[in-house]
Design brief:
By secondary structure, the chain is mostly beta strands. It has a single domain, classed as Immunoglobulin-like (Sandwich). Helix content is 10%, strand content 37%. It is built from one helix and ten strands. The strands form three sheets. It has a four-stranded mixed beta sheet with strand order 6-1-10-8, with no helix packed on it. The longest helix is centred in the first third of the chain and has 18 residues. It is elongated, with a radius of gyration of 27 Å.
């Protein structure tokens, strides 16, 4: 019997280690209710531009609820994006209990406008994680973590001007010559 228990522990450890690559960054053992942050950029964005979106989340008593690999829950995470809106690493946050999150872009690459939009897939009977506010809106957006099976996406859009074109040369003005009378 002792040998069987030891083999079971080894088998469970092997499954945990081999499955580690399947868990998104930021995921914990009991993680659920994924919140994915997407980035859209419109207009001309210089190559070296970077964006950062901060996700701050707390439970009903102010406790942190974001799962972290091998550590205690966190109250916030930052997700970085490149000039094309691609994330640098995982852009999905998972939670270990209910709570409220605020999604705020802290580095906007000097965009002319920033907007936030929320959409969710929710199980029957669950509350809307977007709280009825889908956006787009200019202010940071709140997301409610209310059900382990909800899937929420917040899209942060940055508007940039199109590349400035050189101003056209002014059109030549006709030369008006007044006759000179002598007399």
């Amino acid at each position: 019997m002792r040998r069987l228990l030891m083999l079971s522990a080894v088998a469970v450890g092997a499954v945990t280690v081999s499955g580690a690559g399947l868990v998104p960054a930021g995921a914990g053992v009991s993680a659920s209710a994924p919140l994915t942050i997407e980035k859209e950029v419109d207009g001309f964005v210089p190559d070296d531009t970077e964006f950062t979106v901060k996700v701050e989340c707390v439970g009903p008593r102010g406790e942190p609820i974001i799962t972290t690999p091998g550590g205690p829950p966190a109250a916030s995470v930052e997700i970085d994006f490149d000039n094309e809106g691609d994330p640098d690493g995982s852009n999905t946050v998972l939670f270990d209990r209910d709570g409220t999150c605020t999604v705020t872009e802290t580095e906007d690459g000097d965009a002319e406008e920033v907007s936030y939009e929320c959409e969710a897939l929710i199980p029957p009977g669950a509350s809307d994680p977007c709280g009825g506010v889908a956006g787009p809106q200019e202010d940071p957006i709140e997301v409610f973590i209310v059900h382990p099976d909800q899937k929420t996406t917040v899209t942060v859009t940055n508007e940039f001007p199109d590349p400035e074109k050189p101003a056209p040369a002014p059109a030549a003005q006709p030369l008006v010559v007044a006759p000179a009378f002598t007399g």
